[in-house]
Design brief:
- By secondary structure, the protein is mainly beta.
- It contains 1 helix and 6 strands; from the N terminus they run αββββββ.
- A 4-stranded antiparallel β-sheet has the order 2-1-3-6.
Length: about 110
């Protein structure tokens, strides 16, 4: 369990009224971030207005590729889609990928 708790240190949601961060991203008793898997997380975060970017930080040198993230915000009619169009791999080991990734909104 220790390895995937450190994989995603946090997701920062950037919006029209500021930003807020999740802290470590983890579903207890589940292996999150596995290949081909859909992971769902529910965060109770401050309202940052219209979310237009997400920033992810990883803390492990186990290379990971996220294809996209869909963000559902309470009160919004439609979700926001953030695509990793450049297929940037995430890892704390610079020879494997980047430890930080910023993705901004893409329309469906």
């Amino acid at each position: 369990k220790q390895w995937y708790q450190r994989r995603v240190r946090g997701i920062n949601f950037v919006g029209s009224r500021g930003s807020t961060q999740t802290g470590i991203v983890d579903n207890p008793n589940k292996n999150d971030f596995e290949r081909g898997q859909l992971d769902l997380f529910d965060f109770g975060l401050a309202d940052v207005g219209d979310i237009y970017c997400i920033e992810m930080t990883v803390g492990r040198d186990d290379w990971w590729l996220m294809s996209n993230m869909v963000v559902y915000k309470e009160g919004d009619r439609l979700p926001k889609l953030f695509r990793n169009t450049h297929k940037v791999g995430l890892s704390s080991d610079r020879s494997e990928g980047q430890s930080y990734l910023r993705l901004c909104e893409s329309r469906y």
